[in-house]
Design brief:
Layout (H helix, E strand, L loop, with lengths): L1 H28 L4 H9 L3 H17 L4 H25 L7 E2 L13 E2 L1 H20 L4 H24 L3 E4 L5 E2 L10 E5 L6 H23 L1
Antiparallel strand pairs: 1-2, 3-4, 3-5
Length: about 220
């Protein structure tokens, strides 16, 4: 509610359309997955919402004072979030298993940091689509172009962080690899790699910040 209100207040219906595109497209691509059914029942946590939409809300709130920079931050962060989401959801249809961007080790589908050619292409498409829609709702072509580029770079940053510093655990009971310190079977998990304070939400927030930062840099250079 807070993110949506901030975007609508600062960017009006064009910003709301871009935010809606991100959430609706992600839900459509996730259709049928257990993670989506779980979110429909329990909702997203505030950390998940902040990680994916917090920077976009900040950009929207900045639009009245600095329109170009505010738009760049909002669109760039949403492009990064959409690129990452599309890469994950489209990549699950890859016939080849994902590999970590660093180390090239084969991992299970859905593992943070794992990439496939199909997923990467889907992520690029997601960033370009959001940038294209941004032009249709009023963003300048320069802002949209830099935002799409920022979205792609943010997606790569997400994979880099996911394969290096994001915390990785192994369940002490079933030995399954996890991203959380406790498994659904309620057994504790042991840290096997990364930093314990860097979880998926921290990675997502950083990746969207990278996308927004690149878009803002492009807007400044183009001014």
């Amino acid at each position: 509610m807070l993110v949506g209100t901030a975007v609508l207040w600062g960017a009006g219906w064009p910003g709301g359309a871009l935010l809606g595109l991100f959430f609706i497209s992600g839900s459509v691509l996730s259709y049928g997955r257990p993670v989506l059914r779980s979110r429909l029942r329990t909702g997203r946590t505030w950390r998940q919402v902040a990680a994916n939409g917090g920077w976009a809300a900040a950009g929207a709130l900045a639009i009245p004072a600095a329109p170009t920079l505010g738009w760049a931050l909002m669109v760039g962060t949403l492009a990064a979030a959409q690129a990452d989401t599309w890469a994950t959801e489209i990549g699950r249809y890859s016939r080849r298993p994902p590999r970590l961007l660093v180390g090239r080790r084969t991992v299970a589908p859905g593992t943070s940091g794992g990439v496939t050619w199909l997923g990467s292409a889907g992520g690029i498409a997601g960033a370009l689509v959001l940038g294209g829609v941004a032009v249709l709702v009023g963003a300048t072509p320069a802002v949209a172009l830099w935002s799409a580029a920022g979205g792609i770079v943010g997606m790569v940053a997400d994979s880099l962080l996911g394969s290096t510093v994001q915390a990785r655990y192994r369940c002490a009971q079933c030995e399954r690899e996890l991203e959380e310190s406790r498994h659904a079977c309620d057994a504790p998990a042991d840290l096997t790699g990364g930093l314990h304070w860097i979880d998926n939400d921290v990675v997502n927030a950083t990746a969207t910040a990278v996308g927004g930062g690149m878009a803002v840099l492009g807007a400044v250079l183009g001014a």
